[in-house]
Design a protein that fits this description.
Structural class of chain B: mainly alpha
Order of helices and strands of chain A: EEEHEHEHHHEHEHEEH
Order of helices and strands of chain B: HHHHHHHHHHH
Strand order of the largest sheet of chain A: 5-6-7-3-8-9
Largest sheet of chain A: 6 strands, mixed
Distance between the termini of chain B: 6 Å
Radius of gyration of chain B: 25 Å
Oligomer: heterodimer
Shape of chain B: elongated
Distance between the termini of chain A: 39 Å
Helix content of chain B: over 70%
Number of strands of chain A: 9
Strand content of chain A: 15-25%
């Protein structure tokens, strides 16, 4: 099973806080195959971001096993096997757009020429050609996030971890970037793990949707999503789309019923 | 692209007004402080004197308690433009001596402060163990350091060490804050890229600390100048603004003291302005909002 991009077995993660330990993740079993597009969806505090951070080796699981590309998350991080897009753009304010995108490549030790070519390619993909010399404060929040996506792509990793990357964008840009991301995924065969609050975004983008529930963070249901490949935004008007969205909504509601 | 640049009259007007008020107060104070000596002298001679004679005399004494502004400016002018640059009568020469140890001490203090801050940020042991000692070191009166520092070292070195001692502290404190200023997300990103600690320092922490460095440097350059002048007092130094102040006070040359003070404050303004100019250049280069 070392073929999996991400494999979690009985994974738990407990945060030691000042008053009481908080179980962020409990008994997570999940296998993400190479080339899949998987979304984590659930209410705040359900552990979807924590699970993502554990995959990225930004958090240490308390028990269970977790492998990324068949190796430990730490080794995968050292191999520079993934690119990470955060909720906030977190651009470095003293670097212009081009130099922000080139930063991970600088750290990888690539040559200047190679860095420029790759960065220019990714900036074109997110529609920011011509903005290379702008500084972050000169861009809108949406444009800043597109720069941070270009920065994660510049890495050309096989695995892309995206933590609500479009949450701060206006709907038109968001639709556009959703479509762009889908095309990119189809073309490159990258594995994408995507955290979102939006049901329609999850259904539109994903192969599979992992529905999670809080206290303790756990998986409620994994829903297959077999919309046709090459789909455009108008697939959202289809019956199949509505059915899957309905199943996700029902699963989310069943997760909440534990609390009510 | 500044929208409203204040006109020349708007920016200079208030400064000129304050200066005018200060000068008037100064002349009045000169009369008040010098009058006893003048009256004593008048009475000794036995000539009759009026208000006019009194004022004239208090503003033109050779060794007044408080020299009048025009006397200070005249002496300053004479010792800046009226003396050879390499003669000990030249204020430019003395200012140059003080300036060289100020700059050397500032550079040393900057380097020491930055190094200490980098150590404190990266090592918990240094964070806990070093900072208390640094704070304790700052409670030692500078004069003690001056005296200790003057025992048998070349004057430039000992003066620069005093300046360094005074100015590394604001730099270290500012830099610790600056190096810790990056957001958690920015640090997380560095981790996802598996950046080495050196890369994290050079590409994230140091650039983030630059505004803090300049805030500290403005203070440090001024304290460095004070350190250099204070360092020239007891070292038996033959040259420098501090030596000029000291010799002035030995011989009761109050005008010379004040013109040296004027030179020192001009030097201070110049140095702080120079730091500000470098800061603006660097900020523009780093893409700061205009």
């Amino acid at each position: 099973m070392s073929d999996a991009a991400v494999q979690a077995k009985d994974l738990s993660l407990v945060f030691q806080t000042a008053d009481a330990p908080v179980t962020a993740l409990s008994a997570i079993d999940l296998t993400i195959a190479r080339g899949e597009f998987v979304s984590f969806i659930g209410p705040s505090g359900c552990g979807k971001t924590t699970l993502m951070r554990a995959i990225a080796d930004l958090e240490r699981p308390t028990s269970g096993s977790l492998t990324v590309n068949g190796v430990s998350p730490e080794q995968a991080r050292l191999d520079r096997a993934y690119g990470y897009v955060f909720q906030a753009a977190a651009l470095y304010p003293w670097r212009n757009v081009l130099r922000n995108v080139m930063l991970p490549l600088e750290i990888m030790g690539l040559r200047e020429r190679e860095r420029r070519t790759r960065a220019a390619k990714q900036l074109e993909l997110v529609g920011l050609t011509g903005f290379e010399r702008k500084f972050p404060w000169q861009l809108s929040g949406g444009m800043q996030q597109r720069v941070s996506i270009a920065r994660a792509l510049a890495f050309e990793p096989k695995l892309l971890l995206m933590d609500e990357p479009f949450g701060a964008l206006d709907e038109i840009t968001r639709d556009h970037l959703n479509e762009q991301l889908l095309r990119l995924w189809e073309r490159t065969g990258k594995t994408v793990v995507f955290v979102t609050h939006s049901i329609s975004e999850a259904v539109f983008l994903s192969n599979r949707i992992v529905v999670m529930s809080p206290r303790p963070g756990r998986i409620i249901e994994i829903i297959n999503c077999d919309l046709p490949t090459g789909r455009g935004l108008d697939v959202r008007e289809s019956v199949a789309f509505a059915e899957i969205a309905h199943r996700v909504r029902a699963a989310l509601r069943s997760g909440h019923s534990y609390e009510d | 692209m500044r929208t409203e640049k204040p006109s020349w009259a708007q920016s200079v007007g208030p400064v000129a007004l304050v200066a005018a008020v200060l000068i008037v107060v100064w002349y009045a104070a000169a009369v008040w402080l010098n009058a006893p000596q003048v009256i004593e002298r008048f009475d000794g001679i036995g000539n009759p004197w009026g208000a006019r004679e009194l004022v004239d005399a208090t503003w033109s004494m050779e060794r007044p308690v408080l020299p009048a502004p025009h006397q200070i400016v005249a002496d300053w002018w004479a010792s800046v433009f009226g003396a050879d640059l390499d003669s000990p009568r030249s204020l430019v020469y003395h200012a140059g001596v003080t300036l060289s140890s100020t700059i050397l001490g500032f550079a040393l203090g900057l380097a020491l402060g930055v190094l200490i801050a980098i150590g404190v940020v990266h090592s918990r042991v240094l964070d806990r163990g070093l900072l208390p000692w640094i704070i304790a070191s700052q409670t030692i009166p500078p004069m003690v350091v001056v005296v200790l520092g003057s025992l048998g070292y070349p004057p430039l070195v000992s003066k620069a060490v005093i300046s360094m001692y005074l100015c590394f502290f604001p730099v270290a404190v500012g830099m610790v804050k600056g190096l810790r200023s990056p957001e958690v997300l920015q640090l997380d990103l560095m981790r996802t890229w598996s950046a080495t600690p050196a890369q994290r320092l050079v590409k994230l922490r140091l650039p983030a600390a630059v505004p803090f460095l300049f805030a500290s440097a403005r203070i440090a350059i001024a304290t460095s100048l004070i350190g250099a002048i204070v360092g020239e007092l007891p070292t038996g130094a033959q040259a420098g603004l501090g030596a000029r102040l000291l010799s002035g006070s030995y011989f009761g040359q109050t005008i010379q003291i004040w013109s040296a003070l004027l030179m020192a404050s001009l030097l201070g303004v110049l140095l702080v302005a120079a730091v500000g100019a470098v800061e603006r250049l660097v900020a523009r280069w780093m893409g700061a909002a205009a």
